[in-house]
Amino acid sequence: MSQKALDLRRSTQIARRHKVLLGIVVALGIFGGAAYAAVKPAMFTSTALIAVTPPASYLESTTITGGPDPYTATQEVVAGSNQVLLDALPDVRPAMSLIELRLDVQVASPAADIISVSAQGKSVADAEATANAVADCYILYVGSSHSAVGRVQAQLLQSATDATRPTPIERTVTFALLGGVGGVLIGIIVALAIGRNDRRLRERDEIANSIGVPVLASVPVAHPSTAAGWMRLLENYNPPAMHAWQLRTALHHLGIARPGSGRPAYDRNGSSSVDDGRASMYESGRFSLMVLSLSSDPGALGLGAQLAVFAASQKVPTSLVIGPQQDAAITATLRTACAAPSSEASMRHGLLRVTAYDEGGDRVHPDTALVIVVAVVDDRVPKLPDPMRTNATVLGVSAGAATAEQLARVAVATAADGQEITGILVANPEPTDQTTGRIPHLAGPARRRLPHSLRGVVTEIKR
After folding, report:
1. What is the pTM of this model?
2. Domain span at residue 316?
C-alpha cells in the first residue's frame, strides 16, 4: 500500500476502512466545537451606518465604465485605517489596544455610498460605544484638512443601537458543525497517513501474488465468540447462491467433486505409502484437506467450518477435525463446540461430524469421504502440527489481516514440512475489491468422440 499512488478511489477506500477512526475524530470535533461555544459566549454586535457623498468626477467615471465604485471601496479602507482607530481608542469600551480594536471592528459597504462600522463587545453598551466612536472619528478625519484622501462629505446615517448576538443554541449548533467539518478533514488526513503505511493485503490479487497461489473462493465468514455460536454456525450455515458457487468451485478444483473422490497423500519422496509416524487422514478414497490460518487473524478461523458444512450440504459425508494448534486458546470455543454431543439427525442430516483431534489416533467415521482439518499457526514462527498429514492444504486469510511477509513465512513452513499450499480462501473480502485473485483454470469435461460414419441407417425417404 505504501508504494502505490493515492488517487480518489483509493483514498475513498482507505477512509471507509478507517470509518471507526473517522467517526471518533468527527465526534471529538463536534464535541470540541460545542464545548468552545459553551465556554466562550457569543459577543454582542452593533453597527453604525455612514453616508458619504462622492465627487461628481467619481460618479461620471462609474457611470461610463459600469464597474465597481472605487470611491466607496477607498472609504472602507480609510474607516479601518490606523489613524481613525487611534483617534477612537480613548472612547471605546472597555479600554483596549490598537490590535484588539482592529479585531473587534469590521468595516463594510452594504450599499453604494454607504459605509457600515460594526463592533463587538461583551455587553450591549460596549458594542454600541465602540461602533459609534469609530464612526465619529472617521467622519471627523475625512472632513478635516489633513485627510489623506481630501475632504469628504460624510454624515452619520444611523448610530449604533440595538446590539444583538446569536442565541446560545444557534452558536452551539454553528460551532458544532464547524468542529464536525474540521474533524472530517483531520480524520481523512490521519486515515490516509495510516493507510499509506499499511502493508496488510486487502485485494484478492495482492493476496494471491504474495505467494503465487490462486484464490479459490472469497466469502463472508462468521466468527462466533462462544461454543453455542459455533454450534449454530455448524447447524445453520447456508451461504447465498453466489458464495455457494464459489465454495463449490473451490471443492471441484481440489478434486472433491463427488463423494469418495480425491488423491492419496504422498510423502516427501513422492511415495504413496506414508509411514512417518504421522496420522494420515486418507483411507480408501477418503480426501483430507487442511485449512491453515494465522493466530493474528481470528476472522479466518471459520473458513474450515463453513467449508465443511457446505460440503455436507452437497451430500458429501464430511468430518470436521480441530487439529493440534500452536496456540490452543485460539480454537478453544470451537473445540468445545466440537466436543459437545449432537444427535445423528443433526449436522446436515448426519453427513457432518465434528471432533477434536486426539493424539495417538483419529476418531474419523469410516464412512467419511472428506476430512477438513482446522489448524492455526503462529504468524511469527509458523509450525505445522506434526501428527497431521492431509492430501491438500489451503491457506485461509482475511482481507486486510496479514502482510505478504506473514503469508510467505507460512508458505515456507508448509513447504519445509513436505506439503504444498494449493489454494487460498479469503474471508470477508473488501466490498470494493474488483480483482479475481488469479482464478485457476479448471479442466473441462472429456468430450465424447463423434462417429466418423453412420452405418445401417436408412436415409432415403419413401413417398
Report:
1. 0.59
2. 204-427
